[in-house]
Amino acid sequence: MQVPLLNDRDIEFLLFKVFDTADVLCRERYSEHTHETISMTLQTARNVAEKYFLNHYAKGDAQEPVFDGQKVTTIPETKAAWEAFAEAGFFSATCDFGEGGMQLPYIVMRAANAYFYAANPGTAGYCLLCIASADLLETFGTAAQKSRYLPHMRSGRFTGTMALTEPAQGSSLRDISTKAKPFGDGTYRLFGQKMYISGGDHDLTENIIHMVLAKTECPETGKQGISLFICPKVQVNDDGTLGARNDVALAGLLHKMGFRNATSTVLNFGEQDGAVAYLLGELNQGLSHMFQMMNDARIAVGLFATASGYQGYNYSLQYAKQRRQGRNSGASKQPGGGTQVEIIEHADVRRMLLTQKAYVEASLAMTFYASVLFEDSQSAESSAEREAAAALLDLVTPVIKSWPSKYCLAANDLAIQVLGGAGYTRDHLVEQYYRDNRLNPIHEGTEGIQAIDLLGRKVGTDGGAVFARLLSAMGADIQRGLAGSATAAIAASLQEAANELRVVTEHLLEDMGRDREAVLANASVYLDFFGRIFAAWMWLKQALSAAACLNDSGTTQEHEEFYRGKLHAAMFYARWELPKFKREAELLTGRYDEPLAMNIEWF
Amino acid sequence: MQVPLLNDRDIEFLLFKVFDTADVLCRERYSEHTHETISMTLQTARNVAEKYFLNHYAKGDAQEPVFDGQKVTTIPETKAAWEAFAEAGFFSATCDFGEGGMQLPYIVMRAANAYFYAANPGTAGYCLLCIASADLLETFGTAAQKSRYLPHMRSGRFTGTMALTEPAQGSSLRDISTKAKPFGDGTYRLFGQKMYISGGDHDLTENIIHMVLAKTECPETGKQGISLFICPKVQVNDDGTLGARNDVALAGLLHKMGFRNATSTVLNFGEQDGAVAYLLGELNQGLSHMFQMMNDARIAVGLFATASGYQGYNYSLQYAKQRRQGRNSGASKQPGGGTQVEIIEHADVRRMLLTQKAYVEASLAMTFYASVLFEDSQSAESSAEREAAAALLDLVTPVIKSWPSKYCLAANDLAIQVLGGAGYTRDHLVEQYYRDNRLNPIHEGTEGIQAIDLLGRKVGTDGGAVFARLLSAMGADIQRGLAGSATAAIAASLQEAANELRVVTEHLLEDMGRDREAVLANASVYLDFFGRIFAAWMWLKQALSAAACLNDSGTTQEHEEFYRGKLHAAMFYARWELPKFKREAELLTGRYDEPLAMNIEWF
Questions:
Q1: Residue A405 to residue B411: CA distance in whole angstroms
Q2: Nearest alpha-carbon partner for A258 in A394, A100, A122
Q3: I need a surface site. Which of A130, A237, A367, B602 has the fewest CB within 10 A?
Q4: For the segment A64-93, what is each residue's pLDDT rounded down to a tens digit?
């Protein structure tokens, strides 16, 4: 059964009705683009994704990459997909025209990427990492570094990775033990092992440019710091040809539950003389530099999660419209019992579909909202606007990363349940979406890490000023919502929740001054609480736009149904999902301490 | 990393402290058994499970059974496990001594089986199906039928299946189309296709006895009914030797996300002259007869789910005690930062472990409670007691099937999260538990089917009299709980919830008279609501027993910690999980109708 990638209608709605992409197109940098060229770009993305990525989604899962001790072999479709992505220019989508790029708005680039994530997250993962590491080089590289690597990364000749994690530490980056030793000629030699490095080896390209965190020691003070390094798998000569093989060796592939077509690797740096590496950016600023890529990747994870959730929804929706089974309770009372009905006729199946819709469409809106902020942080007119957008993005990043990861996985669970026994077989893709999506609450910072980041750091930034701005943006939408008959109830429920979000947050920030550990112990509850309300805001935004469109006399029947669906899903979310915030507020302000108080010996 | 199967201490606690197995042993049928012989039996089960089942848990997943068009091949360990199970006498555990059985109480047999489910659910699935189909034959078979098949099923020479589902119907059994035609000699010929038949073919034994539902037609009236048939893969001669191959053919194996070492099959009956079959029990009573096996299987599913959940908990607990990572927030402020701590030191990891504990130990208690009821329905002294127990069991069966299926899967999700990236690799078993466990909310009646069964049928049985008895049993424990200082808070929260369970149920039963469809539309919410409160009762029972044991002067330090853990987990459940019932009560009594009201065109 083949189903559409995402929903073109929904993407159009988000880009041009809910968020103001038309306004972005008015910015000078994007003056060559129009609504029409954007639509064509998205269509290209969808076509390439369908033809070159979707074609091996199941195959790449069944035939995962193999390492024979010498080299890694992926199925050939992966390389073909990589090349098609490069050919279509998506590696340099946001680069200047002058550099051969499309000079595309970031928000459009992200929307385009969503099609690839939906078609084949494993294969698309290689592309994402290459783009994000090229962007890192773009920001922090010297002119010489850029000219040596960037053209090849933007053309798809080389891939890129981010190499942070090590076997003895996962979430705790300060504990890495990989060493970078100055070689005396301005270069460094790396010694250490990195683990869970996605795309750390493969046969897609002739070279891989690793972005590696390693410890450096100040020769005078002996003080250690973490710095960021460029470490190519193969040295690159001045003329762009390849030089000697670097001292980076694949120790092995990790075999995963899902996301199998993307290699996850253990890499040994410096088993012989040390891996030749080049400092990227400033010494001892490695973590801070890396966070550019990490934050990008966190938003991308939210979008990956959304895409898999969306595909499960699409799949189970189509199945439910076709599969006949049982009767509705009215019919069963008739003589003869009537014929079986499509399972979408059953209220419980509709509940499972509506819940999926509520989760995945809120997630898509959320990731687009993050893209708008990113766009503004780059291209808004004034520096004040750019800084304000960047600060807001920083605040919501843990939520954008984690809410879709949790709830789109829950959506995938429901997609399986809609199919019943069929959903548990590998004849249908829903089980693969579920396995693939299970990665997202883990990588690029687990849920627990995001929670501590949000409560322990982000909401308190600038004495809570950024958080206050978020609430005020929410408040503005609430006021608009309260004024409309179709949205008043939705807005009213968000108003109550947003108020509680403010009260609880203030309470916790104050409490943290007294007992940080006890408050942070329930940070995961806070993350869920925050995300739940944030998602409700995304639904209010969609409801507002849908209501406006319904009032537009030009709306066709088909579009009318789309908008009514948005309003109904928003109402469902407001009544079924949002109210759970009350219980979470109780747990948080009452500082329920059972987990913290549990003795280890009692387990 | 190898972890214990379940927790012997917990099983002992449930059998002899929470539930009154000592009392069961006083019944005449069990007079040969003592606490000691029971413990030895359980130890045998654990040993056999560890040696012959656990040994190929991962292997049977990686090398699932293969069908070459002629025959099915499983890994050899599966057959060895089957034989060890037979050798140890577990196929006839509850049979009379006179028949070569162990005459074991059912509750002990179920506890023994739990070790096998924990060690290898796929392989144990073959055993379960054989026992349950033999029990069905025992109940409904003629003397001739019993003597022809039973000895071979009880000895492990033959296996058994339940063949209900068909491709064109899953949950809707009334729509099966497999036909049974009388052959004129008292036998029948079956024609039709069955799907998702677990253990429908394999290479463990020389014969498979299928229990098949098929439609029969009354020659006079033309009215169709569903009857139950015995249909052996190979005919069995009077002397027990095998006769001709029957007209039952394997059309193919289904390839699943998990539970892979158990074959799931499509079977064709009657591709040639018809599959020879024998009516089991009465004509047209097939569904009703089958429900004996189905109800057994539903309890077993609850126990399977529990076992996988429990193993994930054990695994992640042990991992969390060993893996060092990060620091607690106190330590990080010290100069130098201190060494990394075991991750169990982190409150969020403890939260994930405590949540798992709360889910899996409540689930185990729940399935044991069902076993107690089953035991009483068979061996209680008076027929009134037996009937009362049977009625209660009937009421709670949908909950016992579904609550562990949902929450132990949630526990498995948390187990993965505790391990982080490691949990997503196939180097650790937690991902397999998660994949295996995902079957349980589907088979033997999906969550939606259980929900309709509970709300649409069970709670209203006898005008609600059985439900009232359940509440009254709960009430008695609440009163005991309120009287103890360690349990008063737990009991008080359950008291509020139990009262709400009564009020909401009465409200819904009344409402259903007016608009059954609208009320049943939210049956899944009711199932969750009921299960949540039922699980809280299981925790109160455990808390009561733990408090009593703590007061016992003979309690050792190690046991004291076990009991304190029980009390703490009960409190955690009462404060973190139980209160969600309030929101569910609102949805139910307010009859929130968004799923029912969602237009199909709006999706």
A1: 17
A2: A122
A3: A237
A4: 999 999 999 999 999 999 999 999 999 999
Query: How far apart (Å, rounded) are the C-alpha atoms in residues A437 and A305?
Result: 6
**Residue range B488-495: average pLDDT?**
98
Least Cα separation, residue A128 to chain B (angstroms): 19
Which chain B positions have a beta carbon within 8 Å of A587's beta carbon? Answer: 576
Instruction: Specify whether the CB–CB gap between A109 and A42 falls below 8 A.
Output: no
* Encoded tokens for A92: 């340099």
The C-alpha of B239 sits at a distance from chain A's nearest C-alpha, in angstroms, of 39
Q: Considering only CB atoms, which chain A residues are within 8 Å of B420?
A: 170-171, 442, 446
pLDDT in tens, A102-137: 999 999 999 999 999 999 999 999 999 999 999 999
d(CA B218, CA B239): 34
Residue B565 contacts by C-beta under 8 Å, 6 or more apart in sequence? A598, A599, A601, A602, A603, B357
Q: What percent of chain A has pLDDT over 90?
A: 93
Residue from the list A264, A447, A516 with its beta carbon closest to the beta carbon of B329: A516
Contacts A264 to B, Cβ<8 Å: 425
- Residues of chain A positioned with their CB less than 8 A from the CB of B426: 255-257
* pTM for this entry: 0.97
Query: In Å, how far is A434's CA from the nearest CA of chain B?
Result: 10
List of chain A residues whose C-beta atoms are within 8 Å of the C-beta of residue B317 = 603
Q: Are A257 and B434 within 8 A, CB to CB?
A: yes
Backbone angles phi, psi at A222, to 5 degrees: 75, 5
By C-alpha distance, which of A305, A306, A301 is closest to A449? A301
B224, B257, B588, best to mutate vs chain A, most A CBs in 10 Å: B257
Region class of A533: left (phi > 0), else alpha (psi between -120 and 50), else beta: alpha
Contact residues on chain B for A592, CB-CB shorter than 8 A? 575-576
B chain contacts of residue A321, beta-carbon cutoff 8 Å:
600
Q: Tell me the Cα Rg of chain B.
A: 25
| Half-sphere CA count of A206, side-chain side, radius 13 A | 11
Q: How far is B564 from chain A (nearest CA, A)?
A: 6
How many residue pairs bridge chain A and chain B with CB atoms within 8 Å of each other? 251
The set of residues, in sequence order, having a beta carbon less than 8 Å from that of B510 and lying 6+ positions away, is: none
End-to-end CA distance of chain B: 46
Contact indicator for B100, B154 with CB cutoff of 8 Å? yes
Test A256 with B426 for CB contact under 8 angstroms: yes
User: CA end-to-end span of chain A, whole Å?
Assistant: 46
Note whether B347 contacts A169, CB cutoff 8 Å: no
Contacts for A196 with CB less than 8 Å, ≥ 6 apart = A165, A170, A254, A264, A265, A443, B421
**B410: nearest CA partner in chain A:** A410
SS3 string, B435-471, reads: HHHCCCCCCCCCHHHHHHHHHHHHCCHHHHHHHHHHH
Going from the C-alpha of A377 to that of each of A19, A24, B469, the distances in angstroms are 15, 12, 64
Q: How far apart are CA A326 and CA A343, in angstroms?
A: 7
Calculate the dihedral angle through the C-alpha atoms of B89, B90, B94, B100, rounding to the nearest 10 degrees.
Answer: -20
pLDDT band at A330 (very low <50, low <70, confident <90, very high): low
Residue A335 is predicted with a pLDDT of 45
Dist CA A360 CA A569 (whole Å): 11
Q: Which helix (H) or strand (E) holds A73?
A: strand A72-73
Amino acid at B23: D
What rounded mean pLDDT belongs to chain A?
Answer: 96
User: Measured between alpha carbons, how far is B570 from B490 in angstroms, rounded to an integer?
Assistant: 7
Query: Interface pTM (ipTM) of the complex?
Result: 0.97
Out of B426, B520, B602, name the one closest to residue A565 (CB).
B602
Strand segments (E) across B145-187: 158-163, 179-182
